[in-house]
Amino acid sequence: MSTANLIKMANQIAQYFAGEPDQEQAVLSVRNHLKMFWTPGMRKELLAWQTAHQGADMHPLAQAAVSGAGWEA
User: Fold this and answer.
1) Share of the chain above pLDDT 70, in %
2) In total, how many domains does the chain have?
3) CA torsion angle for 69, 23, 19, 6 (degrees, to 10)?
């Protein structure tokens, strides 16, 4: 899968949880979704891209979910 598609999907997931009033819970929800439904390879690719590009083009919740504590690609 292309990195562009991974970013698009991560952003869609983050947008879904953006309405959560508790931002910490929103980040955890995005992280949990990615960990439950994405393959390790998809998570590793997204993390590598996010690290190399400082999260450019990624929703802030997706950035926080990927870079925060508890993220094991």
Assistant:
1) 93
2) 1
3) -20
